[in-house]
Specification:
Elements lengths: L2 H38 L10 E7 H4 L3 H12 L4 E7 L6 H16 L4 E7 L6 E3 L3 E3 L2 H4 L4 E3 L6 E2 L1 E3 L10 E5 L9 H20 L8 E5 L7 H6 L8 E4 L7 H7 L7 E5 L1 E3 L2 E3 L5 E3 H6 L6 E5 L12 H6 L6 E5 L9 H8 L4 H11 L10 H4 L2 E5 L24 H25 L1
Parallel strand pairs: 1-2, 1-3, 3-9, 4-7, 10-11, 10-12, 12-16, 16-17
Antiparallel strand pairs: 4-5, 6-8, 13-14, 14-15, 17-18
């Protein structure tokens, strides 16, 4: 083989490395720019020294007190300060109670390192009107923006920078079993105690799954399966992608949830708050999720209104309290986690689920995603414990267990393709010259 062949190989490798370095530099510059903005607000994603408020509905407080004690102890071991509030309604209505909690958090955030808030049991929420009226937890996360209810009907219809901006300052998560179908207070307490038990098991290492993601995409989005899966590779390089239209059905999906092979499920399917609707036919209902022995630990639901916590019998709550689930990220309205890369990037750097969703709101670049598109994003919320990480406190797994953080996978594939073509051509030339 001619010496020029090796020169070509060297040149190709040099170009690939250069392009990858440029890509990585651009990615890191964009991340650092947004990090600088967030860090000025005190948001570094670090747990040590931060404060978490836990608001607990007073009607269930005594019934879950021992679980709360364990949960508080587990969180304190991460270096956080935990303050628990035994919350009773003021009698002035949910709108006023929500405003009181947000105002208190805003005041405290200005003088202390408040990281986030966890609501346990039925706690206040506000409704927002974007043509569809829906519960909006971003209200509690953005503490320095202005929320407007111009007609005084206790439904917000405006959100602007105000004295600050629309970016979230803190995260929020809900652990609420009150909306489970047919739940009375005893069932609610049992569900919550079971949740905190599996949360503790995850933290002590007795509840584990392989660090693998299932990307399950129904027909509407299947043509873009590679793109969707590629955006979560920053956290999960070990993926199973199922996006064949003839395979993605209700029964197939329900069966695969009993598989212990997956830590995370990223689901794309049309939905109402009470069921997933598969194309061309079939449904997965809340009752079916309740009856399935589900094995995965985390879910990202690209499923309209699946996390509408204003509704009894919503499917995201069923996921949360089914067997092994620790957290569900979904939307309370039409829309979802568009451009999920900006959620999975920090998640793959061992940041918490809460911090990762905050970053998605602020960092998403597409017109369809994050704060750029309220219609798609303002319903996004977390069910479960937002302090959890997928890498279980092991910084050595910071990029999801292998590979080069920020390395453009598409460039790697291009490299293999180009090298293959060059090698074939050179061998053909040698054969001809012989």
């Amino acid at each position: 083989m001619e010496k020029s062949f090796y020169s070509k190989l060297f040149l190709i490798f040099f170009i690939i490395i250069l392009l990858s370095s440029i890509n990585l530099a651009i990615d890191n510059a964009a991340i650092q720019e947004n990090s600088d903005v967030l860090n000025k607000k005190g948001l570094t994603g670090s747990a040590s020294g931060s404060i978490i408020y836990i608001y607990v509905n007073s009607t269930i407080y005594d019934g879950i007190n021992s679980s709360l004690t364990q949960f508080k102890s587990d969180l304190e071991k991460t270096g956080r300060q935990i303050i628990i509030f035994n919350h009773s309604p003021s009698g002035l209505g949910m709108f006023s109670d929500a405003d009181f909690i947000r105002s208190y958090c805003a005041t405290q955030f200005a003088i202390s390192p408040l990281e986030g808030v966890i609501f346990v049991g039925r706690l206040p929420y506000v409704m927002y009107d974007l043509g569809q009226i829906f519960p909006c937890d971003l209200y509690f996360m953005d503490l320095d923006g202005t929320w407007t209810d111009s007609d005084g009907n206790h439904i917000y219809e405006g959100h602007s920078d105000g004295a600050g901006d629309r970016d979230p300052e803190i995260w929020l998560g809900r652990i609420d079993a009150s909306t489970l179908n047919g739940s009375d207070i005893n069932q609610e307490i049992n569900a919550l105690n079971n949740y905190f038990l599996k949360n503790h098991m995850y933290r002590n290492g007795s509840l584990r799954r392989p660090h693998r993601e299932l990307v399950y995409i129904d027909d509407t989005w299947s043509a873009d399966a590679a793109e969707w899966a590629g955006q979560s590779i920053y956290a999960y390089q070990n993926q199973t992608i199922i996006a064949t239209n003839a395979i993605t059905t209700d029964t197939h999906y329900e069966n695969i949830l009993t598989n212990t092979s997956y830590e995370m499920v990223h689901l794309f399917v049309h939905s109402y708050y009470y069921e997933h609707v598969w194309t061309p036919s079939g449904t997965t209902t809340t009752a079916e999720i309740r009856s399935i022995d589900t094995k995965p630990l985390f879910y990202v639901l690209f499923a309209c209104s699946a996390a509408d916590f204003s509704q009894t019998n919503n499917i995201a709550t069923e996921y949360l309290f089914s067997n092994n689930t620790l957290a569900v990220i979904g939307s309370s309205k039409r829309g979802g986690l568009y451009e999920p890369e900006w959620f999975f990037r920090p998640l793959g750097q061992n940041k918490s689920i809460g911090y990762s969703l905050m970053r998605w709101f602020s960092d998403a670049t597409l017109p369809s995603a994050g704060l750029n598109n309220p219609s798609n994003s303002y319903g996004m919320t977390i069910f479960g414990d937002p302090t959890l990480t997928i890498l279980r406190g092991d910084p050595s797994q910071g990029n999801g267990g292998g590979g080069i953080p920020g390395f453009d996978f598409s460039l790697s594939l291009l490299a293999v393709l180009v090298l293959g073509i060059v090698i074939i051509l050179e061998f053909r030339k040698d054969s001809i010259n012989c």
